[in-house]
Amino acid sequence: MSGVDIKKGDIGANVTGSADSTSAILFTGVEISGKVEYGKSYLVSNLKMAEELGIVTSYDTTNKVRIHHHISEFFRMAGDEKKLHIMIAPQDKTLVDLLTDKVYAEKLVNEADGEIRQLALSLNPASDYTDTSVDGINADVRAAIAKAQLFAENCYNRFRPLQVIIEGRGYGGDAGTAIDLCKIPDTPAPKVSVVIGQDWTFAESQDTVGKKYAAVGTALGCVAQVLVSKNIGENETMNITNAGVNVFLVGGLSDHSKIKDVEHTWSMLDSKHYLFPVREIGLSGLRWNNDHTCVEAKIDADGNINEHSISLGRVLDKAARLLRAQLLPKVKTTQPVDAGTGQLPVGVVKYFEGLGNDAFEVMKANKELTEGKTTVNPKSNLLSGDKALEASFVAVPYGTINKIKGVINLKNKI
Fold first, then answer.
1. Contact between 215 and 73 (Cβ < 8 Å)
2. Same domain for 137 and 208?
3. What total of structural domains would you count in the chain?
4. The pTM of the whole model exceeds 0.90
5. Does residue 306 belong to any structural domain of this protein?
6. Is 319 part of a structural domain of the chain?
7. Residue 214 is part of which domain span?
8. CA dihedral 71, 74, 79, 80 (to 10 degrees)
9. Which tens digit of pLDDT belongs to each residue from 34-56?
10. Which residues, at least 6 apart from 252, have a Cβ–Cβ distance to it below 8 Å?
């Protein structure tokens, strides 16, 4: 009973509206008696609402978790009046448990009626937790990447498209041995990102387990702040440092090393698509290195591009949502056919193409899309079989300047 089913196109061989900001964080942690139950979702639109649930600074300190911290960071970057759905699961649950047990991530997304556009996963284990490493990263994180991609694909197929951002706690500390997220052998994961950056000063105040946290709340807030077409690492506007409240003055990685001490690894970690804060000479503050997802950038012979960044994934998700909203009311309506051929008349074809193109025009007006085009197959059979109106949609996203290259010389005249 799908009504409008918009599949993603295949890719061949390699040759901020308010709704867009709706987010969720699924934590492991400790429930709060009489206020926050395990496996129950809560909707907050500012930090005060979360604190009224008992998620306050002392809750983090007492339980040695970082739930209040992540929520406060989300709203610091996203701003108030953004919808944030939160849920807490028991501390002994793994990230894979959160994604595969139907009472956690699936329940959280379903109870939000498909509103959630980006979901963060945060691991806040008990103080006796020991990080184990697989492929140079935390074993729980490594195991969750493929499951997160599968979860996102299932959400898309159920008309709830979203991005998944994983707290990559416990990075192994060796960029050379850390798995290349672009080339994960078990599955490409274009809907998944892994954050291994941290606010080093905040981490320094935590216990041994907390020192290896990663700033997934900060990253999620950045995603919620910007247009779907925008890179969360944009130099011009996305400074994550706030000196006034002593936040992100010193960037770090989730092995609790300072960014400035491992600058020689930045390029390798960036090429492997991890997310972490960097400091650009000539700019104050810190910015995310990029908005990578766990897949290699790819373009095929027909010009089809994969979702190798958060922004590209969000653009495609939003287009799919708008197209469905535009076309769904027309499902089960009666339409004329050509009496001689049984095919669709030109007027019907143009009408439905216009409806699809109207969705693209909304995104173009918001500077979220360069161009979009809808094509309806006039041979669509509305008289027998599944009576499907066949259409294809193509969208051209905005480009991103990752670097500027040039040559400078001294001359005796211009």
1. yes
2. yes
3. 2
4. yes
5. no
6. no
7. 18-288
8. -20
9. 999 999 999 999 999 999 999 99
10. 197, 198, 199, 200, 203, 258, 259, 277
